[in-house]
Amino acid sequence: MYIYFIYIFHLAAIPGVRTSWGKSFKEYTDNNILATQLLLEAAQNSAVKKIVYASSSFVYGGMIGPADERQTPHPISPYEVTKLSAEHLCQLYAHNFQVPVISLRYFTVFGPCQRPDMAFHQFIYCILQERPIVIFGDGEQSRDFTFIDDVVVANFSAMQSKHDGNAKADNHFKI
């Protein structure tokens, strides 16, 4: 018995900027690049109508000021390199093999059941335990976040969209 997939939401990845350095890098390349390539290979010549790939805003590197999706990616960590590499693979398979794929760059996703190592979770936990909150850097940094419900809506909108490719500076479309 064969199972056929019409839509694929590729959300799997090894997350984390700090842990992507050093000995962990192979785990990042295996899971963030090679797994994406295997998925794209499997989608070739299949009935798949669309792959929605969850990339990361971290591909922009160290942003100063408000985020701007027109900014050219400039990864500054191994994690960021793996996410951008997977995006490029998606573009290559779309161009060379007509694999219908769209990449979305999410800013740090938060919400119910989020990873316990994320700042929101850590801050709330420390407050409830009446412990000091650990803040990296000088405390002046800022981040953009995406609520999980918005990610779900964006994924389904991208799935239903007639567009493929990367939603970026030279390929804008409203989903």
TrEMBL record:
SUPFAM superfamilies: NAD(P)-binding Rossmann-fold domains
Domain NAD-dependent epimerase/dehydratase: 7-166
UniProt similarity note: Belongs to the NAD(P)-dependent epimerase/dehydratase family.
Protein name: NAD dependent epimerase/dehydratase family protein
Protein source organism: Aneurinibacillus migulanus
Upper taxonomic lineage: Bacteria, Bacillati, Bacillota, Bacilli, Bacillales
